[in-house]
Amino acid sequence: MGGNRQCFFLIGGTGNQLFQLARATKDDRISGLFLTGPLRRVLGHTDHETILPNLLGVSLATPFLNFVLLFLDLFLARVLGRSLFTDFDIRRFKMDASVKSLNALGYFQDRIDLDAHWLRAVGDALQDSAEHAPQLAVHFRGGDFLSPANASFGILDRSYYSEAIGLAIQSEPTRSITVFTNDDESARRFFSDVVFSEYEFTFVMEPLEATLRSLVASSVFVASNSTLSYCVTAFRGNDRPSIRPTPYNLVDSLPPLDFGVGVPARFVAPAELDSLL
Questions:
Q1: What is the model's pTM?
Q2: Burial, 246: exposed, middle or buried (Cβ in 10 Å; 0-12, 13-18, 19+)?
């Protein structure tokens, strides 16, 4: 896809925000049209915290011509299965502009190249602005991520975390571990198992932006298989030690990561979810 396009930013998980920004060239413009509350309510979109555009200083204005062309192509794509000026990569349809690429809408996960220099610049900015940097940070994604509906992505069992923490401690000897989570209750139950009895855990629930900064700034990081952890591992690069699951999930929906040390992922069967927590 060429430069000087209007990329319409969609609120998604942190990973999807990363993919949208990473696919844009330096000449592209980012539109915040779909960040507006009334339009999101009409479309029934989930409200995620939107942090990456703010962190990177992205301009969110929308030229009127691109606005008109986008909705023209949305109509044509649904009715005729063709788009004139907009590249689409969303659930209902994926297609390229047949005349000229002036707009882009979607996540384009399979079309991006995570540029190491861009990731390093973002990672350095996040680390420099972090209020605190834990010695050993673990990310645990709870909430709806632990529901049977999301089991197709894979829910990591305790053996992955046990091996990953053991490996992390080899480079950063400590018994004190800070767990960053969106689900304090589930995280406490998960890490209360006897397999973790030799460690001292502190559980932290922060706004997403603060969590992202702290995880990137930590001395060593143990990732979950969420897109937030994926982003943190990418932003940390190879200069900041990270431990991540391999494969990252069961659906192979993310570009392969060349950063961090992989630990074999072991996933829980949906029928075993209740026993996990």
A1: 0.78
A2: middle
